[in-house]
Amino acid sequence: MATSSSGSSAEQPSPAVSAVSTEASIVPPPDTALDKTPDDRSKIATFLSILKKGSPEVFVFPLNALPKSQRWRRFIGVADIANVRFSLPSNLLEPTPNLEYWNYMDRPETFVAMGDSDDATERMLAVLKFWFTKDLKFIKGKPVKPYNSTLGEFFRCNWIISTDGTPVGAPGVKENKQQENQATTAQSAAKPIRVSYITEQTSHHPPVSAFYVDCPEKGITARGYDQIAAKFTGTGVRITPGAHNLGIFVTLQKHNNEEYQLTHPAAHVGGLLKGALSITVADLCYITCPKSKLKVILHYMAEGWLGPSKNKVEGVLFRYNPDNDKVTKPKDVPADDVLGRIEGNWQDKVYYTPSKTPSEKTLLIDLLPLYPAAKEVPPESEQLPNESRRFWAGVTTAILARDYNKANDEKQALEQRQRERAEERKASGETWQPRFFTGATTPVGKPELTTDGREALKGLHEGRFALEESKVLGAL
């Protein structure tokens, strides 16, 4: 499902989405009770009132008094609101950095298991298990709006899988940030498998982030660019992958460097007018492996054809010709090429049925007991100033203390510094160069690590977190 990148834009989802973002100060009216914790309904009302105003300087209350035709005036004619920038006040934000929030390792044990089988079909089914677990945060939680990422900001962490195959810190239980380790949990696992992750905001206009995941013990990597396009539909927001987001590219090094491309379907965030956000997915997506010549087409359906069934997914696993790949819909797959079919609910249970033995329908993945796994993050003392948690620490502390005026001040100061650095680069003719990746949006679809990027990942895997300070900063 589509993902977010977000230097200052709508945070990405897949089947998930965060609410839309922007850049430019917004000042709440004096009578707004910022010292109270806002509930979801009041957050949405505030957000809609911002959208209604032609000027981003004042909120308008109450929302229900506004003509519906005026609520979206600011975005009429805007093809992609992910590139429109206005800064949401802190009381509408989830106190989490976007780069930390947006990752695909909600259940890392499915990631490390993708290359376990010597059978190509079984490996594709293992990739499907990873696919269906990568968005648990949206299944178990709700759409939220993290902080906009700033240019040059980065986040790194590990996930630890214990010898029994479950993630350390969250084996089927809800993630608890207070229990989330500060580089110590890993030491308690006997011969653990580490999955190391680094992501960096590589571009601000358009907002794009690059990510790289590595598990040397299993010889598995994943990489890609996160970017979204967003458009208002009248009652919600439709989120699709941006031009630089070609999906997730997984490589199984122990199987002759088999590469899988997993593309994201579009998602829709609805419920803006009702005050209760919801996510639906109604689109096609594809998983392809040219070396094994296997392909999966998944069809997500928001509503059932004959009833109220929601969140339904159907799919087909089949042999294909990578040099002549023209099949885009399940119904167009030749029967002789079909190896099996997928069906179920992507928020509940998903099943697989082999074509040779149609009576042997088996459970592929049960999502009900699963929750996002905890992360291992560097200690605060070893985080750099442009590392996500440390960078946003002042805003996070103020939000958690419900001091939204201070949080707004801290947030606007960071945003102002980013604008100043951009003006300085423009005046000097300097082109921004990411630190951990070789290009802002290249190579196409598949980011490459720099020497610093490779060293940072190696350090993560070995439990070494110290890094040299970044020589060039985008927002400090």
Write a structural description:
There is one protein chain. With 476 residues, the protein is of the alpha+beta class. It is built from ten helices and 16 strands. The chain has helices at residues 40-52, 68-71, 98-101, 108-112, 120-133, 136-140, 388-391, 393-400, 404-428, 451-462; strands at 154-161, 193-203, 208-215, 220-226, 228-232, 237-241, 248-252, 258-262, 267-270, 278-281, 284-289, 294-303, 310-319, 338-345, 349-354, 362-366. It has a twelve-stranded antiparallel beta sheet, sandwiched between helices. Strands 5-6-9-10 form a four-stranded antiparallel beta sheet, with no helix packed on it. Helix 8 runs antiparallel to helix 9 (404-428). The protein is globular, with a radius of gyration of 22 Å. The model is unreliable at 6-36, 52-72 and 171-189 (pLDDT under 50).
Please report the distance between the alpha carbons of the first and last residues: 33 Å
State the total count of DSSP E strands. 16
What is the helix content?
10-25%
* Distinct helical segment count: 10
| Shape category | globular
- Element-level helix/strand string: HHHHHHEEEEEEEEEEEEEEEEHHHH
User: What percentage of amino acids are in beta strands?
Assistant: 15-25%
Structural class: alpha+beta
Biggest beta-sheet profile: 12 strands, antiparallel
Output mean pLDDT: 82
User: What ranges have pLDDT less than 50 throughout 5 or more consecutive residues?
Assistant: 6-36, 52-72, 171-189
Q: Rg to the nearest angstrom?
A: 22 Å
Record the strand order, biggest sheet: 1-2-3-4-7-8-11-12-13-14-15-16
